[in-house]
Every structure is written in C-alpha cells, then in structure tokens.
C-alpha cells in the first residue's frame, strides 16, 4: 500500500529516511523513501559516497581536510550525499565550494552538560577543528548536514549568502562563535537554517553575532553562552527553541534589527535578562513564549556574578525603537536552582536611563506570579520615558496591574472583589472595588466603592463643590480663596480641580490654618477664554481637618485683574455639563 510522507513525518524519522528541504534539496541515509508523483509511487535513492573512500581516517589525529574536499569536489558536480561514519575527523584547514552537497553522520553527540561524564564527543560522528580555523570558507551555495557534531572551530562559516545551508540534528560546541558578521559592515549571512540542533558553549561570549538575515532556528537548544547578539539582523525566525543555563548578562541582544520573530520558545535560568532590546529595532515580535527563573544574577554553580538590578529582569528595554510587540507570553518567578536558591527575577521589565521613545505593545501576558519586587524597574526611578500599550481591563487588583498602570499609555480599569495589599494606585488606574484595599503609598488614581486604608470611597464620580459666579483678583493686592470640603470619602485619595481663569495666576493649596501644603503650577499666559486650570490634588490619608483651600493670586508685578469665572472640585477626573457650558460662553 502506498504511503504518503508528510513533512512532519519526514522530520520525525530523519535518522532513518532523511529530510526533504523546502528548497528541493533532499538528504537520505540510503533507505528507499516512497513519494507521491502524479498518482504513482516511485522509489528514489540519491547517489552517495563514503568519506573513508577518499582516505579519511577519523582517528582524531590525522588531518582529513583533503579527503573531505575531494569528496565535495566529486559530489557537487551532480549533487549527492557524503556518508561520514562514526569517528573524529580532524579538519585543520577550511572546506569550500559547497553546492548540491548533503553530508550525513551516524549520530550527533550529547553536549548538554559540561560536567565530566556528560560530554560524549567521541561516540558519534564528530568533525573537529584546531580551535582557530573556519570550517566553511567560501563558495557556499546549497548544502545540508545532519547527525554530525561540530566542535573546536573559530567559526562555522565566513560571512556568505548561500541559497540554502541547513543543519539538522547537529550539535555545536567549543566555537569562538558560530556565525559572526559585525554590524555596520557590508558582510552578512543569509539563508542559514538550524533544525533540532544543540549549541553548548561555556567558553565564548555569544554564538550568533551581527548581520544575519533570512535565517531560521527551529527546535534548537542553547546552553552556556549568549545565543544571539544581533546588530542589523533582519527577517529571522526563532521558534520552539530552549534557552537554559545561560551564564551571561542576557540570552538575546537586539540592536538596529528589523522584522524578527521569537515565538513558542522557552527561557529558563538565564543569569541575566532573557532579552535586551536596544535602540534602532523595528518590527520585533516576541509571542507565546514561556519565561521562567531568569535574572538570578548567579551562574549554574550559584556564583554571584555581581549584576545590578537592571539585569535582574526578564526583559531589559533601552528605547528609541518602534513596533515592538510582546504578547501572549507567560512570565513566572522561581528558585534560581533546581531545588533551592533565591526566587528570581525581581522584575518583569527593566528600563535603561536617559533613552526616550520606549513605547511597545504588551497584551494578553500572564505576569501575576512573574516577579518578586515589582513589574518594572526604571534606572531613573521616574517612569517618564516608557509607555506601554496594554490590556485595558483586568478582573483583579494586583501589584502586576499597579506596575503596568504606572507606565500605561492609557487608563486601565480593574474590577476588584478581593481584599488586597498593594503599593499604590497610579493616576492611570481606575478601580471598581467591592473589597478592602490596603496601600503602602498614595491613591492617585480613582477607586469607586469599597475601602482604601479603612476609608470608604464613592460608588461613582461625585461633584464635591461647584461655583460659577465670577470672582476677580486685582494685581497682587488680593488673594481669592476656594474651599474644598474634606470627608472620609476623599481622605487618602485625589481630588480633581477645574477652574477657568486668566490672565496669569499662581495657585497654592493650604490647610485650615493657611499653612501651605503644595504650590501648584501657574496658569499659562494667553487669552483668558482658552485658559482652563486643571490640577490633581492628593489629600493625605491622615488629614484630620474638614477642608482645604485653593488660593489664587496674580503673578504679574503690575496692576491688572484676574477673573475666575467657573470652579469645580470633583472625585474622579471629569467635569459636569454646567461647568462645560460655562467654559464655552
């Protein structure tokens, strides 16, 4: 009975039947594979040669460069495969002119751990360099490699743009770097694919560096070194990969990159940040990933690496980028070791100081159990240079929502029904509350219903006081006062004040005894009918008096009249229709 092979089945049985690549290149291990063609069943086997037939020794000592090059020269004329039996094949030079060449070993070796007994480099097919040479030097066009361990090379290949170079079920270790094309230069890499490969490098800084374009990493494992340090990379995909025990300040660094996708990956036990997003990036999608136990500041041996707090987050943000999307991910804190160690990370995000335009999308992520200290660490502690386009409605109040509201580009609404203790209520946060909320800091946003630090809150927006008759302040000879009643419903919360006034004025908030509580910003100069003063005034939770007063005076040194023709104080930021009508006249 005829069997039709799907791409998934071919990948799953690669060690037996080989791989059919999207480019049309086929790699086989010598067994016949049934294929459907115009409704008929055909059997095909690609021609192949054994590397031993060209004089290769595979003893780990003899230089087998000439034997491999001779096999490549023969196969490339018509296309075919080179079978490389188990052994250690020493390559002290470089191989060139890879075209229509498929090279297949017997097995890639386990290279996951660095401890003695875990690295079985000599049990499968190993191609080893001398530590300073480049394996593929020039002339690469089309090639596919499977079931081979590569180790001890300076680079896998020089910068090049082949039509397709694919590595399947291969392992890589003891490289200075796998691919390296410094940003800002004309050289780059194109069209490399790594599928089900393992990269283990404890000795080097980063594996894939610089300008790498139109390339793919699918179902790969990265251990030890930084995986990607890209500058001006473009149109790459990293999917279903695992990043673990990376003893560096970050696993992925992006600078000036475009159109990158990181989807369905797993990041676990990164000593520093999983991602470091620097200036100049555009069109970056980080979606459907699992982030766990990053930012511990320690290595796999529990050694303290001396990282600052900015490295103790899942994602480090710089700014000056655009169209960055971080959506549908799960962020979880955990013990830094397998069974012990401190919980990490401290934060989900950290922000580098002095860099503007840090705005990105962050939607449908799970972060409630994702940090120990806070959602965001800002190196400047101002939170002014970051804005997040995020979800607008949440079903419960938590420290995660508080941190998000602190830097949100829009208001966030929460429907809370459980008692909770949080740090503060930021201005962008609106809480519809049915429980008791305990705050360590200020309530600058609005809470409707329930209690905050024992004080009740209005169930809806309330006008505290309104006054429409015109009142005037002449020169510096007189101050005009406006009284705002204070009751339990506004203690510890924010009162919003709106006034229509002109020309230029100075405002201050005083208590019952006329002691200054706060100086407010002066009203800007301009036509009086365009000048509406709006201010958010925080009433301290411990304020025991019955009212506060706004005092207005002219800031001009000469004579003149300031007219205040409407005034309103309210609980929540809104203006009544009557106030709006007054302002329009």
Automatic annotation (TrEMBL):
GO terms for molecular function: lyase activity. The lineage of its organism: Bacteria, Bacillati, Bacillota, Bacilli, Bacillales. InterPro entries: Pectin_lyas_fold, Pectin_lyase_fold/virulence, RHGA/B-epi-like_pectate_lyase. This is Pectate lyase superfamily protein. It comes from the Bacteria. It comes from Paenibacillus tianmuensis. Residues 49-298 form the Rhamnogalacturonase A/B/Epimerase-like pectate lyase domain. Keywords: Lyase. It holds the Pfam family Pect-lyase_RHGA_epim.
């Amino acid at each position: 009975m005829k069997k039709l092979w799907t791409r998934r089945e071919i990948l799953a049985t690669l060690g037996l039947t080989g791989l059919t690549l999207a480019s049309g290149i086929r790699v086989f291990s010598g067994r016949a594979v049934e294929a459907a063609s115009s409704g008929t069943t055909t059997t095909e086997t690609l021609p192949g040669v054994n590397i031993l037939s060209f004089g290769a020794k595979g003893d780990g000592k003899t230089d087998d460069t000439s034997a491999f090059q001779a096999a490549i020269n023969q196969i490339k004329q018509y296309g075919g495969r080179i079978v490389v039996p188990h052994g250690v094949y020493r390559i002290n030079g470089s191989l060139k002119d890879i075209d229509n060449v498929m090279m297949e070993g017997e097995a890639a070796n386990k290279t996951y751990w660095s401890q003695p007994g875990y690295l079985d480099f000599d049990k499968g097919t190993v191609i080893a360099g001398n530590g300073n040479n480049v394996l593929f030097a020039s002339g690469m066009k089309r090639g596919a490699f499977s079931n081979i361990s590569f180790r001890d090379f300076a680079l896998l290949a020089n910068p090049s743009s082949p039509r397709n170079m694919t590595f399947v079920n291969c392992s890589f270790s003891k490289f200075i770097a796998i691919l390296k094309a410094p940003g800002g230069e004309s050289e780059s890499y194109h069209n490399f694919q790594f599928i089900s490969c393992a990269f283990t490098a404890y000795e080097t800084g980063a594996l894939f560096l610089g300008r790498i374009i139109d390339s793919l990493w699918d179902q790969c494992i990265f251990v030890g070194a930084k995986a990607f340090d890209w500058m001006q990379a473009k149109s790459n995909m990293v999917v279903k990969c695992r990043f673990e025990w990376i003893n560096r300040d970050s696993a992925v660094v992006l600078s000036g990159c475009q159109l990158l996708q990181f989807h369905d990956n797993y990041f676990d036990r990164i000593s520093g940040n999983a991602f470091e997003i620097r200036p100049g990036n555009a069109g970056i999608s980080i979606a459907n990933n699992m982030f766990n136990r990053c930012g511990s500041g320690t290595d796999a041996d529990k050694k303290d690496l001396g990282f600052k707090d900015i490295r103790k987050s899942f994602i480090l943000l710089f700014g000056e980028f655009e169209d960055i999307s971080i959506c549908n991910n799960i962020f979880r804190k955990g013990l830094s070791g397998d069974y012990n160690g401190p919980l990490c990370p401290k934060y989900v995000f950290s922000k580098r100081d002095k860099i503007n335009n840090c705005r990105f999308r962050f939607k449908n992520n799970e972060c409630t159990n994702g940090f120990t200290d806070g959602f965001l660490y800002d190196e400047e502690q101002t939170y002014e240079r970051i804005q997040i386009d995020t979800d607008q409605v949440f079903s419960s109040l938590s420290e995660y929502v508080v941190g998000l509201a602190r830097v949100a580009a829009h208001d966030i609404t929460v429907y809370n029904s459980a008692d909770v203790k949080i740090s503060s209520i930021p201005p962008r946060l609106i809480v519809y509350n049915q429980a008791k909320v305990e705050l360590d800091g200020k309530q600058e946003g609005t809470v409707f219903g329930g209690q905050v630090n024992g004080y009740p809150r209005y169930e809806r927006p309330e006008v505290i006081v309104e006054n429409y008759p015109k009142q005037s302040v002449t020169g510096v000879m007189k101050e005009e006062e406006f009284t705002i009643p204070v009751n339990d419903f506004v203690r510890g919360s924010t009162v919003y004040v709106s006034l229509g006034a002109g020309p230029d004025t100075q405002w201050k908030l005083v208590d019952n005894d006329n002691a200054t509580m706060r100086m407010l910003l002066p009203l800007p100069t301009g036509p009086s009918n365009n000048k509406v003063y709006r201010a958010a005034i925080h009433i301290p939770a411990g304020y025991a008096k019955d009212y506060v007063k706004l005092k207005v005076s002219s800031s001009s040194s000469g004579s003149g009249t300031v007219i205040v023709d409407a005034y309103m104080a309210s609980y929540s930021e809104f203006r009544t229709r009557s106030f709006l009508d007054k302002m329009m006249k």
